[in-house]
Amino acid sequence: MSGIRVRTRTAVTVLALAAVTVPAATAHAGARWSAADLTGVGHAALTGVTRVDGDTTWAYGVKVRQEGKVQPRTPLLLARDDDESSWREIPMPAFADRSNQLSAIDAVSQQDAWAVGLYEESRGAFLTQHWDGTEWRVVDAPAPEGIRLAGAGLLDVSARTADDVWAVGWLIVVDSEVPNPDKPGGTIQETHAEAMLQHWDGEAWHLVPVPDATSLWTYSVTALADDDVWVSGYTVDDRPAMLHYDGSSWSRVPVPYDGVNGELTDLEARGPNDVWAAGRKLVDDEDPGHALLAHWDGRSWKQVPTPADAGRVNDLTLAPAGVAVAGEQPDGTPYVMRLRHGRWSQPSVPPGGADGSRYLTSVAWTPRRGLTAVGYEEGATGLPTPSLLTGGR
Fold first, then answer.
1. How far apart are the first and last CA of the chain?
2. Bridge pairing between strands 370-378 and 384-391
3. pLDDT tens by residue, 167-203
4. Model's pTM, two decimal places?
5. Separation of alpha carbons 120 and 274, rounded Å
């Protein structure tokens, strides 16, 4: 989800002998997609996909199983090279937190990748994972001192070099807590939200001050240089927000949009004069959301027109001569759209599940295969089934 990602075949073939092979895809009639057979994975939800180098794609999310009344989760990472017909599973260590949610993965090279997720109260830290080309290792990222958190998490990561990695996220800070007179043993909390930035300098993660942190929710980051970092999100009154770092300080940069409210939840960049942001705009108080896309040309942000009936954008990826997005129509129907030479096309997405309930969470461009879109389907048991589609040219 952040800028330019690199990872190579060598990085994943190290674990190939320990991997679980997933059968080849089957074509969907009447559309330009093929759906991977992920029955070997079990119940899971794929929440992200990223093109990691010239011939390798990673898809990630969580495995879910039912144990009595609880549903324990473990991280899930799948990999495929362009010359392979099946996906393979790469083992990842579980976080202590039961959610085990992977928010994003990004990399510097074949021996240097990062994954980020939620805050773990039991450890008092944000748990990130680092890939050294052979295995994943859990690395703590600090939580702010002197405050109590009701919740927190890292949402995105951008790995530019071995000593220049950025992560963004959120904090829910407890301001006060008093006994709940209506619930013996319970409490009532007063809280507020804050934006959060972390930076890896090659040795450790460090918290980075965010200007007006209580007025922002930071959602995505892309680092192009040590003096060129973009962070997107939204304000406390639900308006799109963009921050830029010039190597010495952060500044708020306006992004025009034709809505009442909205958010910018994803960033991608080809270079300093070609940065894209996507999310959602609301045209009135009853609007569930329409697609919002913006482009930075090196001088200013400009809104890019999108089809009037397109719902909110869940994910954005760079594609030849433009970009592609995965999103959700106001009625919940998933969609994938591609902008090429200023014109939109929308390949049909096959319905999923017995009731057609499919959610597309992320999309990536693959030169040899076109688009790869991932997500999940809702099952009758309440457990998700992973969804991985390739094609959509």
1. 20
2. antiparallel
3. 999 999 999 999 999 999 899 999 999 999 999 999 9
4. 0.89
5. 36
